[in-house]
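Forum: Protein Structure Q&A
Topic: Joint prediction for protein chains with partners

I've read a bunch of threads here and the consensus seems to be that you should model interacting components together rather than docking separate models afterwards. I'd like to see that in practice. Below is the full input, 228 residues plus whatever partners are listed. Could one of the regulars post the assembled result?
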Amino acid sequence: KAGVTQTPRYLIKTRGQQVTLSCSPISGHRSVSWYQQTPGQGLQFLFEYFSETQRNKGNFPGRFSGRQFSNSRSEMNVSTLELGDSALYLCASSPGTGGRGYGYTFGSGTRLTVV
Amino acid sequence: QQQVKQSPQSLIVQKGGISIINCAYENTAFDYFPWYQQFPGKGPALLIAIRPDVSEKKEGRFTISFNKSAKQFSLHIMDSQPGDSATYFCAAKGGTSGSRLTFGEGTQLTVNP
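Posted by a regular:
Agreed with the consensus. Here's the joint model:
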């Protein structure tokens, strides 16, 4: 069974640009969550999508947005990039949402560097 | 209320020794406590998880101990191996946080041969 696939693996962008990251969940998984990982702030929740609907949102500015398609694939977009957006962006998929004990499988992430 | 505090920040253990990582939480509505292992260049991988109605769970060399009254839980790695060298994260989920995982700060474990 294929794991969670994130593309691209690495990305270098200039401050002020926008970027789109992609995530393909495990086949059959309908929930996709996004996390930002930085050395200073650790792992922080961005948002979760389930059946194309945003179910939960973390404490990030509106420059961070996402969406989920009917095939459960998800994209996240960051507009007007800032140097502080440099991070590893992780996608996690799960069979369902909100229920106790649902395991989350993470992808290897997209390393975004803003210069 | 949503924080999870993890210690120590780094840990060095000799091969064959026991590695112990501790976490404390504040939100009593949390009802799922997983531990993740992360190697460089990889995403976190679920290692073991526990629910608050159980005080201990063991899977191979990995054991979670859970103290509901103290709002603390810990990961014990028995017979630690150099291949266990990684960053470990505790996390919690539930209550008003819904499906989001709230992570601890992480522990960099080094197991010397």
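The longest strand of chain A covers residues 42-50.
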